[in-house]
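Regression test case RT-17, inverse folding.

Input:
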């Protein structure tokens, strides 16, 4: 039996597999998720006498149902409930890569952020204040360079400690989506909570958000519900119409804007400073 299962999440090409290999060496198993072509990769390693299991999730930009990869990633998280998720981000593309982190925070699973490719970031003259970022995001942050193994010990320590600390408790982050969407989300969340719709797996507000984003997977499950589904759909339709009429945009776009707003409100607090690179100094 394992002391913990860690899931690796991240955008494609953020270095997940490189870090996974650096930690597990040859102790890996590769298979497929049942019925689909998405690869399932799992590995083990020992850390201070503890047996640790890692699942390398498929690369994804978000936790929507737009691709099989994203759907698999979120299903593994809610069905297998790893103790902790290590979200591997490319430190040179922080703003874009934090979008997935925000979704993980909203889901509520314990997250540790790996600022990977820190070697590339430093070569570009970027200095990232990991302590400050950690404080503002409310999760441990570790700089890593998966290619050289830099930071992998600290990352493992922090991931295991964070998983232990949270002890299986999911704490979803509340993000405001503004006056055009928040009231609808609140009403929907209450209905979802009262109807216990998917709430054994997801936070109620998260289910409401997925309805608002027209997530096919959640809608598909909802269609089996009858009355509750119709009520939720009605609120979504009204909100959509309101957003189109007054803002000339759809709820999905507003939701994405607010998520980037959340990210940028943090990044503008002197998280990244840029020094001249060696070449620029000459
Ligand atoms: P994945 O898609 O997230 O699994 O990413 P990979 O592990 O396949 O890595 C994508 C590319 O980035 C590969 O060419 C790696 O060698 C490279 N890479 C991974 N980690 C680092 C790192 O920390 N620094 C640098 N410079 N390159 C890295
Ligand atoms: Mg990979």
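Golden output:
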């Amino acid at each position: 039996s394992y002391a913990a299962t860690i899931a690796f999440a991240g955008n494609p090409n953020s270095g997940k597999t490189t870090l996974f290999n650096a930690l597990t060496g040859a102790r890996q198993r590769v298979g497929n998720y049942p019925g689909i072509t998405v690869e399932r990769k799992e590995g083990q390693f020992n850390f201070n006498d503890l047996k640790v299991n890692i699942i390398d999730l498929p690369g994804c930009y978000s936790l929507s149902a737009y691709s099989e990869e994203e759907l698999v990633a979120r299903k593994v998280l809610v069905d297998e409930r790893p103790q902790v998720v290590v979200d591997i981000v490319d430190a040179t593309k922080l703003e874009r890569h934090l979008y997935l982190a925000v979704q993980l925070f909203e889901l509520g699973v314990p997250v540790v952020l790996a600022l990977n490719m820190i070697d590339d970031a430093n070569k570009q003259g970027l200095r990232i204040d990991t302590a400050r970022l950690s404080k503002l995001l409310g999760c441990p942050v570790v700089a890593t360079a998966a290619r050289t193994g830099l930071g992998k010990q600290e990352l493992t320590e922090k991931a295991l400690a964070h998983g232990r600390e949270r002890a299986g408790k999911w704490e979803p982050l509340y993000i405001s989506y503004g006056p055009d969407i928040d009231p609808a989300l609140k009403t929907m969340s209450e209905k979802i909570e009262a109807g216990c719709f998917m709430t054994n797996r997801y936070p109620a507000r998260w289910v409401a958000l997925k309805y608002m984003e027209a997530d096919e997977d959640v809608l598909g499950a909802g269609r089996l519900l009858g009355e509750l589904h119709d009520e939720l759909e009605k609120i979504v339709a009204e909100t959509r119409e309101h957003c189109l009429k007054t803002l000339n945009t759809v709820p999905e776009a507003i939701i994405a804007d607010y998520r980037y707003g959340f990210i940028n409100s943090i990044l503008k607090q002197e998280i990244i400073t840029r020094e001249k690179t060696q070449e620029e100094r000459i």
